[in-house]
Design brief:
It contains 14 helices and 2 strands; from the N terminus they run H-H-E-E-H-H-H-H-H-H-H-H-H-H-H-H. It is mainly α. The protein has a two-stranded antiparallel ribbon with strand order 1-2. It is flat. The N terminus is likely disordered.
Length: 321
């Protein structure tokens, strides 16, 4: 007589799906409502900034883009021209001259301000006493106006100014800082802009240095790394996001240079310092050709945007590695 073995419940039972109990469903609904409330709260907090940014940033950009397609007069007469302003712009030698002068200025200004601000941040980071006092003193030029800085430095760079007087005493003769070669003029202007604006980037670099873990630098010292080796292989890689943030910001500042040039050289000599913003200023406020000036502004916007996107992509690529 054979005995049949009945399958047990454990072996015969099929895997059952997890069922959501009413308690779990209520918990999920509560979490959804909580996330929804947090999202709405966050939007309400940033909404004033978004409105201000939209009104004073996006709308003017859209308005300038629309104006660049027209001939706009002060009396309100508007004539649609299509892309005629851009065609005229790209055929204008003064536009290309101003774009070249701006590019040369950026090439001089950006590396110089990064080196000066980073060096100042490294020195301040090593100070133990009176670091706050030195930070305040070095930040003072950033608080001054470009007009005041331009007037003071015009006197310093003058052929009869104190700098040339000191050079005469050394037998180097007077140097035409603001009336000589284009690279000399642009270099002098870049030096003034660096003196005026390096305080902001210096504080950004200093914040990045303060945020670096001390254990990494201690390990580098234990391994016998010199100060330069530690800076090159430890400090700079950790500072890379801050470095490229400053690079993007200062590149934008360089392309927007106007005040210093307007006060110190007026775009001269022979348009050696005739920047793109100065070209835009002349076309819009001197010749009242607002549509043409708007076209120049849109080209400047496109150049700065493309450079910023390239730098951002480069930063993301470096971080991914």
């Amino acid at each position: 007589m054979s005995v049949q073995t009945l399958p047990s419940k454990a072996s015969d039972a099929r895997p059952s799906r997890l069922r959501t109990t009413p308690t779990d469903a209520n918990g999920q609904d509560a979490r959804r409502r909580q996330r929804r409330r947090e999202a709405v709260t966050g939007i309400l907090f940033v909404l004033p900034t978004l409105v201000i940014f939209g009104v004073f940033k996006f709308l003017p950009i859209l308005g300038a883009g629309a104006m660049s397609l027209t001939r706009y007069r002060l009396n309100g007469d508007v004539t649609f021209l299509g892309t005629d302003n851009y065609t005229r712009l790209f055929d204008d030698p003064h536009f290309w001259q101003s774009l070249g002068a701006t590019g040369a200025y950026v090439v001089l200004f950006v590396p110089l301000i990064i080196v000066v601000s980073l060096s100042g941040a490294v020195l301040l980071n090593k100070l133990v006493r009176y670091s706050g006092t030195f930070r305040a003193v070095l930040f003072v030029p950033y608080l001054s106006s470009f007009v005041m800085a331009g007037i003071v430095w015009s006197w310093i760079f003058d052929l009869d100014g104190p700098l040339n007087a000191a050079l005469d005493g050394l037998g180097l003769g007077p140097v035409p800082f603001l009336s000589g070669d284009q690279w000399l003029v642009l270099g002098s202007l870049a030096l003034v802009s660096v003196w005026k604006g390096f305080g902001y980037s210096m504080l950004v670099f200093l914040a990045g240095l303060k945020a670096q873990p001390a254990e990494v630098h201690e390990a580098a010292r234990i391994d016998g790394a010199s100060n330069w080796q530690a800076f090159r292989h430890v400090t700079l890689p950790l500072l890379k996001p801050v470095l490229f943030f400053v690079l993007v910001i200062e590149t934008i500042v360089g392309f927007q240079v106007f005040d210093t040039i307007y006060v110190m050289t007026g775009g001269g000599p022979n348009r050696a310092s005739y920047s793109l913003i100065y070209f835009l200023y002349d076309q819009g406020f001197k010749f009242l050709d607002f549509g043409y000036a708007a076209a120049a502004g849109m080209v400047l916007f496109a150049v700065v945007l493309i450079l910023s996107l390239i730098q951002r992509r480069f930063v993301e690529g470096k971080d991914a590695q």
